[in-house]
Amino acid sequence: MRNKRGKHYQPKFVFIFLIILCIAGIAGSAYFGTTGNSAAGSLLAPMQQGINTIGGFFSRIGEKHKTISELEAENESLKAEVDSLNAQLSSYRENISEYDELLKQLDIKSKYPDYSMTGARVIGKEAGNWYKMFTIDKGTNDGIETDMNVISENGLVGIVVKTGPDSSVVRSIIDSSSSVSAMIGKNYDNCIVNGDLVLADSGLLAVEFLSKDSQVAVGDEILTSYISDKYLPGILIGYISKVNADENELTYTAELTPAADLEHLSTVMVVLDKKGVSK
Amino acid sequence: MKYKRINRTLVKIIAYAVMAVVLFVMQTSLFSHLKLAGVVPNLLMILTASAGIIGGCTDGSVTGFFCGIMADLVFGHYLGTYGLIYLVCGYAAGIVNRIFYKEDITFPLFTIAILDLVYGLYMYFISLFTSRGSAEIFLFALRRIILPEAAYTIIAAIFLYRFILYINGKIQRIGGEGLV
Question: To the nearest whole angstrom, how far is the Cα of B36 from the nearest Cα of chain A?
Fold first, then answer.
């Protein structure tokens, strides 16, 4: 960093100039809001894709090093599990036929109406350890916009927060700045599902504002609610794993196990229909 | 001689830019498969601190600014939050450059560890604004994120610092040939 006469630029001034730039950037984006455009992300996307493949290769090598005895023990336990699951399956089959009839009677629309979706691959994770965001390999060229819901085959994963031409950034529901308006599956009582830095460590989410009358119990399914302004209604988020009474004795909080495996995502589906936008 | 010097600066800028992009891509994709204790090492901080330790305040702050803004553009909540902390850390590492020999690996590692802890505390401070309920969990964040990240970063720095020092030595030699 020298000018043409060979003089040094004073490091102090470079430093102060860059600090002012940063503060201006922070103030600007706080004032105007972030644009939701990730052009830089799209430049890096192809490289991330390539290196991600190498990373997957390394983690597969790690998996191969499981010892044979471990595999044998796993085989035994899996066989036992298959038996018990088979038994469960046959009882479920009966339940399903009953359920179908009940559905017809109640005239409830199917839980997942025919949203148009597109599959995408996860190509990068957030740069630090504080937030749970990730990049996917589809962008505006594939019709993706901000605020589109992202799901996996099991349940809700997150929401698109930034888009670029060929990549997008998705904020996972487990991120501590994420908040989803939800409802209990059995009685449609509303609650809020929040990401939580402590619970995220064990892969769980926090559920707040459950009313005392909601009779929430461990194992209840939690779906996205009809009153949410960004999330489409009726998408499975997860199951209640623990219920605590609040100090005020009026509301309950709970812990929720997400239905989607948020820790090991490799492919996701982006729902191309947005809430509040008619087709 | 004048042209040699400009040439050397240009090569240095290109080398740091390439390293920053490669390390950022590695940190976001490769190392998410190589997590230890649930954290990824902060490779960008190693680059920023190394640039400061080896090249001084200007090198440190410019490298830090570039690394931070790149992270901001891709993942940031506000443009400039990462930029600010990497910039400050790069400048602080530059001050260390005046005090210690850069060839000795102990002090650079120590500096990188301290700077990564500062980065952790700063990120905790920022999370008070971006996330709910962060105020009560300082000890959790320290135990679960800040300290493991610093430890993993030191391990990565043992290899990466030598590499960056080697690259720097190569760049210094570009100008040196003209004098000989």
Answer: 12
